[in-house]
Amino acid sequence: xxxxxxxxxxxxxxxxxxxAHWQALETTIRSLLTGxxxxxxxxxxxxxxxxxARSIGEVTDIVEKEMYTFDDRNGESLxxxxxGTAGCVRACLEHGLLHNQTQRLxxxxxxxxxxxxxxxxxxxxxQVGAEAYGMAGPDIDAExxxxxxxxxxxxxxxxxxxxxxxxxxxxxxxxxxxRLVAYFSARQDELDEDSQRRLHSxxxxxLDTKNPAMRAVVAGAPLLLEHLDPESAAHFAGxxxxxxxxxxxxxxxxxxxxxxxxxSQTVFEWVTDTLGAQGTICAGGRYDGLIEQLGGQRTPGVxxxxxxxxxxxxxxxxxxxxxxxxxxxxxxxxxxxxxQQGLALAEQLRDQLPGLRLRMxxxxxxxxxxxxxADHSGARFALILGEDEVRSGSIALKPLRxxxxxxxxxxxxxxxxxxxxxxxx
Length: 425
Ligand code: HAM
Hints:
Elements: H1 16-35, E1 39-40, E2 46-48, H2 49-56, H3 61-66, E3 68-71, E4 77-80, H4 85-94, E5 103-112, E6 124-133, H5 138-155, E7 161-166, H6 170-185, H7 193-201, H8 215-219, H9 230-246, E8 251-252, E9 266-271, E10 280-286, H10 290-293, E11 301-307, H11 308-317, E12 329-333, H12 336-352, E13 358-360, H13 367-376, E14 381-385, H14 387-392, E15 394-399, E16 408-411, H15 415-424
Helix pairs in contact: 1-5, 5-9
The chain binds histidyl-adenosine monophosphate.
């Protein structure tokens, strides 16, 4: 036998048994985003590598070691998108969507990062993201957060908490960075290898370390939140007041720094402790400098992205079933004449009852075997077309989910009306 191939490590198949969860989640998110006035934008999966280097930052984990980068046949360096914000800004600039106007956009799809796969962390994963442009105040930050809070309520996910922080303006951050480098330089021997390396390239990321041995030295580090520029402090106070008035609970986490360099001012993460180590289900923040950095006019931007695999895992763990995919009716066709007529009958029924979930038996076989299939499918009704029915222009209808479902025979031309009445009941 030929050798079977397997999927790439960290890139998952979403099997039929799981896809109902995904569809239910996607439908809920889409209608919520539409309700808040966000419009969908569909972006390419690959972009020029330079886009990510210039936006996410040269000295981030993502750009340094996690990108799927390759040269195309023309020798141009391309990268499978590790996130959606950079591509969204690129598209908005390219198509002039930011000229004297605000935008509320969302996107969904696969992202790629060469990370070490583990539960909740994959090399191909899916995000739904939202980005808002042209709005500088904390009102839009708060609206985005309220939208996500509403989503968790709609999904019935209550084991989630919101952490917020402000990274200040880039000038305030530069001054803070110097203070931080001085602090950590004086304690070099307490730093692990990764942090030593980051000390001069990206010292803020040291605050984000997951190494327990570093906890004490990080705990003593100066806090950016205490050195904010007045404008950022006012923005952050404004955000807090808005969240308070909307009744959204949050925790200020002064060590929340995020793994992408484009952020300034607001950053936030929704976390749960029900998923193990990979507990961030949604994360984002403000990136007022990014658009200019990518060649546009200075324009405010803020957004978030949520990790769909992690949300699906939370829904599945709660035992929530996805949308019911069982058919309404299963059409059993016994004998050659019935098999001849079956397709036309099924198509006619689909015309008459739009949205009907009808599964037609294909592949022949005797009544018993077909009936077993009908039962296994979870269908509410079996429709039986046998030789007698063909001869008399009738069809048998048998309820499969009622305790004493009586089989009855109907003229074929009354089937649609009958079925509609039963399904509406
Ligand atoms: P991020 O924090 O890198 O932000 O990713 C957002 C979310 O994507 C995470 O909170 C997590 O739920 C999910 N995620 C990230 N990496 C993985 C992975 N390897 N496996 C499974 N899930 C993962 C961004 O991507 C920003 N673009 C968010 C943003 C939008 N900020 C402003 N606008």
